[in-house]
Amino acid sequence: MVKNNQSELIVVTRAKELCSYIMTVTQKSPKHFRFTFVTRLQNLSLSVIENIYRANDVLFGEKHGAIYYRERLEYQRKALTDIRILAYFALLAMEQKCILPKQWEQISKLTEDCRHLLGAWINSDRKRLSPSGNA
User: Fold this and answer.
1) Fold of 10-129
2) Which residues of the chain are modeled with pLDDT < 50?
3) Global pTM value
């Protein structure tokens, strides 16, 4: 996976941008959405980062084999699922006027970036496990 200037995975950087943006825009949401959309969006964005970090901390490579690959893949998939749920909740939050349409568009862009980067990371790991890419 390609890394940014600070030696951090790009997917981590994008997930942090997503989380930061969600924290900022939800602080301005109407108070009556605090325990429905606001909390859920914030917690899901934190969960995405957490699962990406957990996946990255699983040792993986020629020496570590398929057991570690499955563990890492499990965290990557949890992050993907959380991103999908977050994207849906953001749409619903926009429809209910918890966030503005422009805010939803930005969240959608960031969630798509994270989804694509996670997918590329999963594919890269699959190829590393099986040089033919058929794992």
Assistant:
1) de novo design (two linked rop proteins) (1.20.1440)
2) 1-5, 133, 135
3) 0.87
